[in-house]
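Proteins fold reproducibly. Take a sample protein:
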Amino acid sequence: MDGALTVGGELPPLEIPVTRTLIVAGAIASRDYQDVHHDAALAREKGSPDIFMNILTTNGLVGRYVTDHCGPHAVLRKVAIRLGAPNYPGDTMTLTGTVTALDGETAEIRVVGANGLGNHVTGTVTVHLAQRGAV
């Protein structure tokens, strides 16, 4: 684990450039072939100014943010997120986290991902802080 977790403690922020490649690659990797995630012209026809990130990519980035901080032996037990402002290409999403509870080897972390339009994602991640070699 990079740093000891304490209730009220904050994880360092993580800035993620939102590129077209990230949006499209995330949609493909999660098998989400909806046109609003890869075709700008069709996204505009449906009322969006551009393609935008899907929830599965956001979910993966939130999980990565927590496990990058908690270490390679951390196990995600629950990820409960809600989307807000879309992540469009050219923006940056900054993830921040606050430890809200600790119970033995389990931590609850409140995560917010903000971009230039507001909060893209808010939610709570429950993570088991497994010791090396244990699960």
Q: What stands out?
A: The beta strands are 10-17, 74-83, 92-103, 106-115, 118-129.
